[in-house]
Structure formats: structure tokens, C-alpha cells
Amino acid sequence: MPMKGRFPIRRTLQYLSQGDVIFKSSVKVMTVNYNTAGELSEGARGKFVFFNIPQIQYKNPWVQIMLFRNMTPSPFLRFYLDNGEQVLVDVEDKTNKEITEHIKKILGKSKETLEKEERERKKLSHPATFGPKKYHLRECMCEIEGQVPCPAFVPLPKEMRGKYKAAMKNEA
Amino acid sequence: MSVPRGAVHAKWIVGKVIGTKMQKTAKVRVTRLVLDPYLLKFFNKRKTYFAHDPLQQCVVGDIVLLKALPERRSKHVKHELAEIVFKVGNVIDPITGKHCAGTRFLENLSDSENLTEADTTYLSEKLQELKVCSTDK
């Protein structure tokens, strides 16, 4: 059964995680003013609000996004930063791709910062250790390649089994 | 542990004023987009905040920018009014700087729009009638 709605692909996790606009930590509020009629705000209203805003909110869950409709004749975006600064972006007659590129350039985290953050996150979890699933990749030593496999799947060789070792000790 | 500005999580917030009945305090409703885990769609979730407004310049329906106070002012008031973004009935388009209403520009605030001469005469007649009624009593 296909998904319900006009463009249900907007509601898939894969689509949401494909959003590439990640705001800097100083951006707190994003306000979008657009109009429901008129060709000039077609890029903002038609495409940006419908397709890109879910991606942006998914990637930046702590940024408050507010949408205002039909308040002013011209569509615009407004960002409120942590230091009190406000950034006004005129969006009239722009396609949604241009808008996202512009936002990424002015207020998005650059590739280097993103890579750095990823590396730091990797550093925190050591991949060679094992333990509870919450903190490590593997739970038991038997899951690591090169170690003795789990006796639930592959029986241990005779020399490692307890009853053989006890029998050898008795003989000697 | 140092407490930076705002013992609250939200430092800057934009919301709509819903009540001004308290003295020097405005009740502000803030909506955030929250993802529904099953539908994977964003819905507005409301939350009300109380903001300190010393000059009582907010009217119900204004869009307002709040700033977190460094420490709580009272049990519920943790923010103060930083700026009125859009005043109700008096919206200024930030790009052109003109007054506007909906998708139209208002050229002049004082000029009452679309009032023809017939309207003004009709109104003045009505006013005279009212004056007559009051003197009769």
C-alpha cells in the first residue's frame, strides 16, 4: 500500500537525514514569512517551506522555526542569533535550491567543523572494547573477529572443555 | 559550574502575545515544530511563557522576541521582552520599510482607505442623529 499524502517522500527518514543545512550553534530562531498566493513567492512558499523546512528542523532540533503567512507582501527569512544579531534574507523570486545554498553559506556549519565533530564523536567510543550495548559496539568477546567463537554456535575443541581438563588432571 | 546568561534552556524565543492582563507581564505562546515519531511529520507544539514587559507596550496578538533573563525574576517569569517584531495592525515590512496589511502595502496610515464622499456624509449624518438623541433626554 503506497504512502498517503501529496509528496509522502518528505516524510521518510532517509529524505529527512539528507538535509545538508546544519546551522551554527549561535542561531536560535528562524522565522519564515511567506504568502499563499503570488508567483514571486513561489520558490519560498511552494518549494522551500514544503520540502526543505522539514529537513532543516530534523537536522537542527533545537532551533525554533516559526512560519508566518500573508503578513507582508514580500517573502523573507529572518534569523535571530545568540548575540542579539538579526539576519534578514530576502527570498522573493528565488528557487528553493538558491535559498538553501544561500543559508548554508551564511549560517551553516562548514564541512571542516562537521568532520571535526564527527571525529571527536568517534574518539569517545573505542571500537576495540566490548560491553553493554549502550556504550560499546559488541557485547561479548566471542563477537570479535580473531577470538574464540561463541560455544552456542561452534562447540569448543576438546582441550578447552572443562570435563576433558578434569579427566587429564585425574589421570596425571 | 558557572551559570551563563539564562538558567533556562531557551535563550531567545519568538512568540505571539496571548494575554496582557497581568501588570508588567505578558503571556506569550511559543510554537515549535515537533516531529511525530510515527507519521514523521512536523506539527506545531505550543508552550506558554511569561515575559517581563516593564512599559506594558504589548497588545494581544503582537509577535514578540523574548530574551532569557540571567536569573529568574519570579516563579514563572524567566524571560523579558527584547523587541516587538510585528505589532498587530501595524506590520512594517522589513525589506521596504513600509506599513503593510496582508499582501498589500498601505501608503499612508492616517488616510482611511476606501472612504468615498458618500461614506463621509453618511457618517456625519449618523453622528448628528446621535447628538440629537442625547439632547432630547
UniProtKB/TrEMBL annotation, chain A:
The keyword Mitochondrion applies. The keyword Ribonucleoprotein applies. Keywords: Mitochondrion, Ribonucleoprotein, Ribosomal protein. It comes from the Eukaryota. Residues 36-110 form the Ribosomal protein/NADH dehydrogenase domain. It is found in: Mitochondrion. GO terms for molecular function: structural constituent of ribosome. It holds the Pfam family L51_S25_CI-B8. One of its GO terms (cellular component) is mitochondrial inner membrane. SMART domains: L51_S25_CI-B8. InterPro entries: Ribosomal_mL43/mS25/NADH_DH, Ribosomal_mS25/mL61, Thioredoxin-like_sf. Belongs to the mitochondrion-specific ribosomal protein mS25 family. This is Small ribosomal subunit protein mS25.
TrEMBL record, chain B:
It comes from the Eukaryota. InterPro entries: NA-bd_OB-fold (IPR012340), Ribosomal_uS17 (IPR000266), Ribosomal_uS17m_metazoa (IPR039193). GO terms for cellular component: mitochondrial inner membrane; mitochondrial small ribosomal subunit. The keyword Thylakoid does not apply. One of its GO terms (biological process) is mitochondrial translation. Pfam families: Ribosomal_S17. Keywords: Mitochondrion, Ribonucleoprotein, Ribosomal protein, RNA-binding, rRNA-binding. It is found in: Mitochondrion. GO terms for molecular function: rRNA binding; structural constituent of ribosome. Belongs to the universal ribosomal protein uS17 family. This is Small ribosomal subunit protein uS17m. The gene is Mrps17.
